[in-house]
């Protein structure tokens, strides 16, 4: 079995620092989403494709009740519980992904070593060295649009069905170089 087939057949994790959510996909289908805390702007959670390389039960302290280490170069990063539940949903860590302990405990047995983990790129955030620049006036979504952040397995057709809009309306709202190629973490505007 190729890596690509294994990736689609098993469990994979997707972390979106912008929405501060960790999504669990099984066989390419969304299974569950958890709120998380991620790196602050001065120590952002690095974007990229990684794997779980080790697991520890009850590491304690700031790491809470579970640790799932990632193979992110240049540091000791992981998905873990926390002794500070109020930090969930915020930009607070040194780059790790924090979860409520009960959520980390629920996820831990489902995630074998080697599980793929994708961390979405958030422009201005995942690059080290400061906060994201303020957007220029008028550069955000039109007021009559909703924002969808592309998840693994998304296509324009799936997104159109999810929001009950036509494919033509999506294409008109999004100037895409190649509508057949979406990137995880990419923003798609959904007309209302």
- Whole-number tally of structural domains: 2
Number of strands: 12
- Rg to the nearest angstrom? 17 Å
The CATH class of the largest domain turns out to be: Mainly Beta
Low-confidence stretches: 1-8, 129-143
If you average the pLDDT, what whole number results? 82
Looking at the structure, what is the overall shape? Answer: elongated
Largest sheet: 8 strands, mixed
If strands are numbered along the chain, what order do they take across the biggest sheet? 3-2-1-10-5-6-7-9
CATH-level-4 superfamily name of the largest domain: L,D-transpeptidase catalytic domain-like
CATH fold annotation of the largest domain: L,D-transpeptidase catalytic domain-like
CATH architecture of the largest domain: Beta Barrel
Helix/strand order, N-terminal first: HEEEEEEEEEHEEHHE
Family: Belongs to the YkuD family.
Keywords: Cell shape, Cell wall biogenesis/degradation, Glycosyltransferase, Hydrolase, Peptidoglycan synthesis, Transferase
InterPro entries: Cro/C1-type_HTH, LD-transpeptidase, LD_TPept_cat_dom, LysM, LysM_dom_sf, Transpep_catalytic_dom
GO cellular component, one term: extracellular region
Write up this protein:
By secondary structure, the protein is an alpha/beta fold. It folds into 2 domains: 3-119, L,D-transpeptidase catalytic domain-like (Beta Barrel), CATH 2.40.440.10; 145-191, LysM domain (Membrane-bound Lytic Murein Transglycosylase D, Chain A, Roll), CATH 3.10.350.10. It has 4 helices and 12 strands, in the order H-E-E-E-E-E-E-E-E-E-H-E-E-H-H-E. The chain has helices at 3-9, 101-107, 156-163, 167-173; strands at residues 11-16, 21-26, 29-35, 38-39, 48-57, 66-70, 78-80, 91-93, 97-98, 116-119, 145-149, 187-191. Pathway: Cell wall biogenesis; peptidoglycan biosynthesis. Residues 11-120 form the L,D-TPase catalytic domain.
